[in-house]
Specification:
The chain is an alpha+beta fold and about 160 residues long. It contains 5 helices and 7 strands.
């Protein structure tokens, strides 16, 4: 059974490893993953400051979500599910819990700059595409990230 709970700052390193493993599932090169190391890192400080939730199964960390509170609207900074646990509802549960935190603080929506491979997941959860963000990588100079907006009450629908 999946349990969603607040993350502990002491889990930062394990959650960062989980994020890297989850990003790698989409076939990005090791060199590209290395360039994204900072972007795939959750720090103890960010876990203390931002709403951060983990999914656990029998004590094993299988997913994480973190919401950045630095702008308006708040933004989904991280949503990662370990590759061994994909397609089991863990991502939906984490997204729903992140949106609960957003709504609890009076935010009407959450911004998501999604990996192109994850856009369908967010659209299925009720997000709407509101633009794109340039995100070129080696071999894909025209790559963009879909910019999505998920209204409070829309996640997990």
């Amino acid at each position: 059974m999946v349990m969603i709970r607040p993350a502990d700052p002491g889990e930062a390193e394990a959650l960062s490893r989980l994020a890297r493993a989850a990003k790698a599932v989409w076939g990005y090169s090791t060199a590209q993953l290395d360039r994204w190391r900072d972007d795939l890192t959750l720090s103890a400080a960010s876990i203390r400051r931002c709403p951060t939730f983990v999914a656990e199964v029998d004590g094993e960390l299988v997913g994480v979500a973190q919401v950045s509170i630095d702008g308006s609207p708040w933004e989904l900074e991280h949503l990662w599910v370990h590759p061994d646990w994909l397609r089991r509802g863990i991502g939906r549960a984490l997204l729903a819990r992140a949106m609960e935190a957003v709504a609890e603080k009076g935010q009407a929506a959450m911004l998501i700059d999604a990996d192109p491979h994850a856009e369908a997941f967010y659209l299925a959860a009720g997000a709407q595409r509101v633009g794109v963000v340039a995100a070129p990588i080696a071999g894909q100079p025209d790559r963009v990230l879909p910019r999505l907006l998920l209204a409070a009450g829309g996640a997990g629908a």
